[in-house]
């Protein structure tokens, strides 16, 4: 029989506990997450021939991936590829797509992706100093990143009519999700009043509308289906719950900070999402779970519109509708960020999108418990955002594609529309 077409699969996921001031370095947290991912994939360290790392803020190193690979004993080693990727909060999804390319084009067979940080261990003053310096925009007062998102919030409100109360409902939705997740930091649901009465950070943002700064790390392992088949591990990944296929991806870029005149040309998520949908040949209504970046409410709002959950300019109305549903039914499962996102799960600087990938794998494997979005979750979309809408990366994941007898004999996969 001809060989079946190779697919690249997520076969292992690992994550540390998230917490405040854990007293550990980013490197040590990432090393623990890598070991967890190896265990999940039933692989050993020597099985890996690639490593990608997202740099940390709290403990930065020249060539972060080389540092981590050396720390955990993967270097020196022949025929081993190591890459550091910094596209801000988009980094883990960018790295996921880079891992796929390393397998498809560079002859790797198993690549680990790691992201983590210990930013809550920094003083608030030092954290803001480093974050402000990273943006490097004199027009933005400290805190630069929240103020940048604040400008965009004002523009979006003026352009599309979203209200302050609608934006304040986003942390309420995310806390509803997180309250049911066993590993989320937030354990109770917020009210709109609590959000609006929390300390003001910028004129447009209060404390509960900001990503929750935490320590922690995550790791995922991607592998070639042919390698897995040779090892007798095909469809046995993720603690035996099954492999998850990387179906498609898309990336796009915008300016590092908001331009003097803000308009639609600065945003990149829609382009990245369209590229991913085109490659996968699926539509938004064929996605069962969305893991969307939500560092601030405006980021979540732009994301739900960009990926096609609702039309452009209608995000505020959609948020209102979902908020009414969680008020009416505390068991309602919103098929977006079932872990609680950055606002309620926890945010170790550039790492949080890796937790969205891990949550997508849980959903596709059908092991999300009370947060399971569908009895048969078939496809998931994850989106990472870096800077102030500066970098976008989108990946679409799916259950393994099924083959009928004719297609198997021809070595051709069936349609991704499972």
TrEMBL record:
<dbReference type="Pfam" id="PF22691">
    <property type="entry name" value="Thiolase_C_1"/>
</dbReference>
<dbReference type="InterPro" id="IPR016039">
    <property type="entry name" value="Thiolase-like"/>
</dbReference>
<protein>
    <submittedName>
        <fullName>Non-specific lipid-transfer protein</fullName>
    </submittedName>
</protein>
<dbReference type="InterPro" id="IPR002155">
    <property type="entry name" value="Thiolase"/>
</dbReference>
<feature type="domain" description="Thiolase C-terminal">
    <location>
        <begin position="264"/>
        <end position="399"/>
    </location>
</feature>
<dbReference type="GO" id="GO:0016747">
    <property type="term" value="F:acyltransferase activity, transferring groups other than amino-acyl groups"/>
</dbReference>
<dbReference type="InterPro" id="IPR055140">
    <property type="entry name" value="Thiolase_C_2"/>
</dbReference>
């Amino acid at each position: 029989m001809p060989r079946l077409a190779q697919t690249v699969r997520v076969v292992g996921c690992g994550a540390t506990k998230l917490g405040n001031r854990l007293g550990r370095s980013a490197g040590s947290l990432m090393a623990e997450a890598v070991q967890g991912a190896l265990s999940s994939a039933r692989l050993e360290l020597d099985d890996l021939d690639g490593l990608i790392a997202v740099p940390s803020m709290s403990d930065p190193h020249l060539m972060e991936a080389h540092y981590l690979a050396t720390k955990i004993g993967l270097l020196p080693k022949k025929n081993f590829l190591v890459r550091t990727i910094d596209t801000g909060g988009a980094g883990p999804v960018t790295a996921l797509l880079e891992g796929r390319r390393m397998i498809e084009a560079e002859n790797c067979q198993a690549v680990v992706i790691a992201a983590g940080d210990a930013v809550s261990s920094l003083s608030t003053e030092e954290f803001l100093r480093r974050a402000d310096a990273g943006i490097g925009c004199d027009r933005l007062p400290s805190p630069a990143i929240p103020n940048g998102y604040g400008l965009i919030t004002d523009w979006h409100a003026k352009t599309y009519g979203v209200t302050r109360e609608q934006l304040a409902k986003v942390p309420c939705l995310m806390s509803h999700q997180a309250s049911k997740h066993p590993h989320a930091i937030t354990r109770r649901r917020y009210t709109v009043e609590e959000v609006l009465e929390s300390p003001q950070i910028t004129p447009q943002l209060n404390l509960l509308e900001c990503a929750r700064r935490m320590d922690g790390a995550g790791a995922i392992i991607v592998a070639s289906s042919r390698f897995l088949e040779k090892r007798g591990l095909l469809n046995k990944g993720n603690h035996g719950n099954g492999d998850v296929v990387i179906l498609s991806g898309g990336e796009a870029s915008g300016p590092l900070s908001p331009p003097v005149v803000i308009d639609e040309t600065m945003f990149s998520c829609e382009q990245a999402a369209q590229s991913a949908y085109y490659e996968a040949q699926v539509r938004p209504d064929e996605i069962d779970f969305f893991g969307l970046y939500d560092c601030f409410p405006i980021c979540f709002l732009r994301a739900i519109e960009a990926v096609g959950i609702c039309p452009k300019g209608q995000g505020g109305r959609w948020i209102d509708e979902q908020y009414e549903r969680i008020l009416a039914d505390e068991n309602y499962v919103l098929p977006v960020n079932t872990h609680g996102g950055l606002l309620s799960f926890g945010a170790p600087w550039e790492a949080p999108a890796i937790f969205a990938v891990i949550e997508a794998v849980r959903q596709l494997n059908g092991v999300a418990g009370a947060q399971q979005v569908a009895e048969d979750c078939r496809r998931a979309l994850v989106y990472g955002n870096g800077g102030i809408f500066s970098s976008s990366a989108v990946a679409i994941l799916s259950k393994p594609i099924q083959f009928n007898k004719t297609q198997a004999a021809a070595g051709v996969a069936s349609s991704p529309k499972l």
